[in-house]
Amino acid sequence: MNATTLSLSKQWNELKIQNPKLRTRQAADQLGVSEAELLASTCDGDSCVRLMDSWKDILKAVESLGYVMALTRNEAAVHEKKGIYQNFKLGNHVGLVLDENIDLRIFFDHWHFGFAAEVENPRGTLYSLQFFDRDGTAVHKIYLMNDDQIDEYQQLVEQFSHPNQQPGLEVEPLSEPEPYKTLDEIDHTAFLQSWSELKDTHDFHPMLKKFNIKRTDALRIAEQEFSYNVDPWCTQHMLRMAATREVPIMVFVRSQGVIQIHTGPVQNIRMTGDWFNILDPEFNLHLRKNLFHSAWIVQKPTEDGIVTSLEVFDADEEQVVTFFGARKPGKAELKGWRSITKELIE
C-alpha cells in the first residue's frame, strides 16, 4: 500500500468515526476522490475484494443470490429496486435483465472496475457488488437482501476474485463526446418531419444520432408541436397524482453504464430536505430536486398511438429521470397517464 492510499484509508476511517451514517459516495466527495478510489483503498481480499472484469458472467451468476436490491444513480436521482436478477440476455455491447421487478439496460463499455464490499451501517453488515466507470464513478450496485444467501455470495466472490488484491486504484477521465450540431446547423423542417414519422419510442434515440442533435435542443425545436417546457418541480405533483389516482408508471434512471426501470404503481411519497422520495416496499426513488434545471412533456408518435413522457434534466442538460405511463408494446397509452401529463402542460 503506497502512502497516498494508506492516507486515504485512514482519512476515511476517521470520517466514519465522526459520522457513522456517512455513505461512501459522500465520503469520497469530502475527500476529493472518486468513489472507486476510496473503496479500493480498503481492498484487502476479504471485506473488500477486487473482481475480475468478467461482467457478463458475474451478472449471470447474480441470480444465485436470490432476492437482491439493484441500485443505479446519477447526481440527482437514485433508483433502488428489489427483485431477482433473472432472464439475463446479451446483445452487442448491451446486456438486459428482464425480471418482473429488476429491469435493466446495461452498457458494458462503461464497466471498468468491480468490487465485492462488506459495508457496515447501523443496521449491520451489507454485502454488495459495486461496479464503476473508468473515472471511478459508480454505474451500478447490487445488495444482498437475504442472509440465507451469504454462502452463495461468498462463492460468487471467490469465483470472480481478481488475482491482484492490493489496495489502490488508478482512474482516468472519460473521453469527451463528439460535439453536437448547433440549433442553427439543424434542418428544423426535416427534423420535425422525421419526428412525425416515428413508429416506436425506441426510434427516438437513433433519430437524434442521425441528426447529431442534443436531446434538449431537439425538444426546443419541437416545442409546442411535440414537446412542452414545464416547471421541473411539477415532478412532485405528477407523482402525487399518479399515487392518488392509482395510475401505474414507468420510472427510468440512468448512470453512464446502466438504465434502471421501475414499472408499476407508486404509493408512499415523502419530502426529506432537498430530496423528494418514493418509499415503497420494493421500489425507492430519491430525487434531489434542487439539482433539477428543466423538464419537458414529450410526445412521440408510435404505431400504438402517441406515447407521452416527462423528462427532467440537470444544469448540464443531462437526463436526471424520465417517466412514462406503464405500458407494453402493442398497447395504447393509459388514459390516466395522458390526463396527468395534459394537466401538467395546462
Could you characterize the architecture of this molecule?
This protein is of the alpha+beta class. It folds into 2 domains: 3-86 and 112-159, HemS/ChuS/ChuX like domains (Heme iron utilization protein-like fold, 3-Layer(aba) Sandwich); 183-269 and 288-345, Heme iron utilization protein-like fold (3-Layer(aba) Sandwich), CATH 3.40.1570.10. The protein has 10 helices and 18 strands. The strands form 2 sheets. It has a 9-stranded antiparallel beta sheet with strand order 1-7-8-9-2-3-15-14-13. A 9-stranded antiparallel beta sheet has the order 4-5-6-12-11-18-17-16-10, sandwiched between helices. Strand 8 and strand 9 form a beta hairpin. The chain is globular and about 60 Å long.
What tags apply to this protein structure?
346 residues; alpha+beta; Heme iron utilization protein-like fold; nine-stranded antiparallel beta sheet; 18 strands; globular; Heme_Transport_Util_sf; Haemin-degrading HemS/ChuX domain-containing protein; HemS/ChuX_dom
